[in-house]
Structure formats: structure tokens, C-alpha cells
Amino acid sequence: EKGGYEHFMLKEIFEQPRSVHDSMRGRVNSATGHLLLGGLREYLNKMIHARRIIIIGCGTSWHAGLVAEYIFEEFARVPVEVEYASEFRYRNPIINEGDVVIAISQSGETADTLAAIELAKSKGAIIFGVCNVVGSSIPRATHAGAYTHAGPEIGVASTKAFTAQVVVLTMMGIILAKAKGTISETDYRKLLVELETIPEKIEKILSNHKQIEYISDLFKEARNFLFLGRGYNFPVALEGALKLKEISYIHAEGYPAAEMKHGPIALIDEEMPVVFIATKDSSYEKIVSNIQEVRARKGRVIAVVTENDKLISQMAEFIIEIPHTHEALMPLLSVIPLQLLSYYIAVMRGCNVDQPRNLAKSVTVE
Ligand code: M6R
Fold first, then answer.
1. Active site at which residues (predicted)?
2. What is the sign of the dihedral through the CA atoms of 336, 328, 278 and 255?
3. What is the C-alpha separation between 254 and 317, in angstroms, rounded?
4. Which is nearest to 338 in space by CA: 168, 222, 209?
5. If both were cysteines, with which of 82, 175, 234, 237 could 55 make a disulfide (CB 3.0 to 4.6 Å apart)?
6. Residues 29-80 pLDDT 10s
7. What pLDDT digit, counting tens, does each position of 202-219 carry?
8. 334 lines ligand 1 (CB under 6 A)
9. Where are the alpha helices (H) located in the chain, listed in sequence order?
10. How far is residue 324's CA from residue 281's CA, in Å, rounded to a whole number?
11. Residue 59 in contact with ligand 1 by CB distance below 6 A
12. What is the Cα gyration radius of the chain?
């Protein structure tokens, strides 16, 4: 059932060209300009008029929510708050009638997310679910939703569910933007065209797995890791750190690169690997200076960059090249090398990657 792969996690990482394609199937067509999420239709009007959108989730699903925040705010111009379901439900949040809550969950069974939904529902919010497991508890508790269609995810570390969540949330953001008239026709078309190229670009990144395995071998004994990114790649930094810690038990932290100077830079020495997600986007120059700051303190830099980046390839100890895409879609690509890096490091350390210690696939305890 692992389809010839050594672990479910690796199989699921390699399934992403397919699963991303599946999550767009019948929903996007750039040639005709068609973009549709069936579950959204009935509630689109309410979403257009929502004064704000609250996104809730846990772990990796919360990271997908952060990516969505950037997309929704940039294109649909609606204020978004992203919250850990566990914090949201216990802090007496302000929820008004007509507020829209988007709950993200792979399993659809996460106890904190489910309880947060019930709370928001009792206060009159409209709840939209983005889940992977069909017929699970969360989709049953929501008013409407869209399935991610990533297929069963068995490995405890979430990989293909994350990219599918980001695809669905991206589609939602674009649909909303289009309906509100806050996106230009050019941007709209461009995003649809780019969305359709994501599967083949992921394929290309995966074909480079040997290089990532090679880098993993050189860093497998590290005791700490830092992951830094800006803008759309900031949530990816958090996700890279979470992947590494949960399956390899290496202490890792993700930060927005600009926050480094407010504390974490004190950690940098010749033993600190720093993974930069530094693709060519609007914050490129800024992140290049962050790389210089780390180099100046002898930190070991591994950089995920856009193909043919000559500048960073001279500064970093190792670079991992990925294809170019629209800045807003970059997380779908930049997360892939980080999934592989954590996978290979964990395997090399002899860890049980599919079932890491102390963790469960769905967290049904509060
Ligand atoms: O099933 P869910 O998406 O609700 O699960 C949320 C988290 O428990 C989950 O993403 C967890 O953080 C993963 N192990 C991360 O890889």
C-alpha cells in the first residue's frame, strides 16, 4: 500500500503533483476563465459582505491559514485573522452575527477545531470548512465547505494535505476577489494559468530529490535549525520547522526573516544551519540582506531559491532551486524541498517518520 515507497510520508510527498491536480479538478480552467467551488456558491454573498474572516486550525492547517490570510487580504481586500483553534475557543473571542469563520482540518476530527466551530456557530457566525476526510466530524458541523481531495494521508506529518489546503484556499480567495471586483482581469487570468502549472513544477522539484538527500546527509547531526522566510514564504518557514521537529526531533524554529534582528540572530554561530526561503519576489532584496547577516556570523546557509538565481548561489553554502511562479502561489512550491529535507534527515537519524513519538494523526484530545 506504500506503492513501492519506504514510508507513507515519502509516498505522500511524491503524490503531490497528482493531489494538487485533484484538488483543482473541475474547479479551475484558465482557458475559459472558469473558477468554481460548489460549496461556496450558496455563501458567496455572505462572504462578500463579511466585515472580517476568521481562520482557525491547528499545526500545519494553521500554517495553510496563514498563507490564506495573505491571499485574501491582498486580492479580496477583506480583513483576516488567523487563530489557533485552541486559543480562539478559550479566550472569549468577539464574534458577530454574519462573521465568517473558515475552519481548516485534514482529518476533520481535531477536537480543538471542532469545539471552536461550535462556539463560533453558537454566536451566529457562518462556518466554512476546508477538510480532507470526507464525511468526518468537522464537515458535518459546518454550514458549507470544500473538500481538499488530496486522498488519504497516512503519515503523521502532513504534506499533501497542506498543499491541497493551500490550493483550495487560494481558489476561495480568488473567487471572492473576483466577486468583489478587487482583482484585475490580468491578475485573475494570470493566477488561474499559474495554478494549472503547479503540478508540473512540483514534479520538477521532486526530480531533484537526490540533491536534497545529499544536503540532508551533511546536516543530519545538527542540534538546531532555523527557518526564515518573508511574505508568502513566512508560513512556509514555520511549516519547514514544524516538519523537521516532529519527525526528526531536531529543535527547529521558523521566523519571519525580518524578526531575526529582534532576538534569534543571537543564536547564529558556525553550528547553526539556517534555511532561507528566498525566492524572487517582492521581498527578495530584503531577504538577501538577511542572508548576508547570517553569513557574517558564520551561520550555515541553505537557501531555497528561484531557478538561475546567481546572487544567492554565491552567498549560500547550498542552494535548492525551484521553478518560478506567481508570488502568491510560491508556498505550493517552496514547501516541497522542506518536506523532503525533514524526511531524509529523519530517516538518516533512524526515526519512525510515519509515526513519530508522542504524536497522533488526528488529535482528538483537547
Ligand atoms: O487534521 P488536522 O489538519 O486538523 O490536524 C492538525 C494538526 O494536528 C496537524 O496538522 C499536525 O500539526 C501535523 N502532524 C503536522 O504535520
1. 361 (for fru-6p isomerization activity)
2. negative
3. 19
4. 209
5. 82
6. 999 999 999 999 999 999 999 999 999 999 999 999 999 999 999 999 999 9
7. 999 999 999 999 999 999
8. no
9. 8-14, 16-24, 44-48, 59-71, 85-90, 111-122, 137-141, 160-180, 185-206, 209-219, 234-248, 284-296, 310-315, 331-348
10. 9
11. yes
12. 20
Q: Cα separation of 311 and 116, whole Å?
A: 46
Which residue CA neighbors atom 11 of ligand 1 most closely?
59
Whether 68 is in the pocket of ligand 1, judged by its Cβ within 6 Å, is: no
**Is the beta carbon of 156 within 6 A of some atom in ligand 1?**
yes
How does strand 28-29 pair with strand 34-35?
antiparallel
Residue 361 designated active-site: yes
Please tell me the distance from the alpha carbon of residue 327 to that of residue 219, in angstroms, as a whole number. 29
- Ligand 1: centre distance to CA 107 (Å): 8
pLDDT exceeds cutoff 90 at 331 = yes
- Specify the residue with its C-alpha closest to ligand 1, atom 9: 59
- 230 near 287, Cβ under 8 Å? yes
17 — phi, psi (to 5°)? -55, -40
- The sign of the torsion formed by the CA atoms of 209, 107, 224, 292 equals positive
What the block records as the C-alpha cell of 330 is: 510560491
Which of 8, 55, 60, when mutated, tests ligand 1's pocket best, judged by the most ligand atoms within 8 Å of its CB? 60
User: In 3D, which of 326, 306, 25 has the Cα closest to residue 190?
Assistant: 326
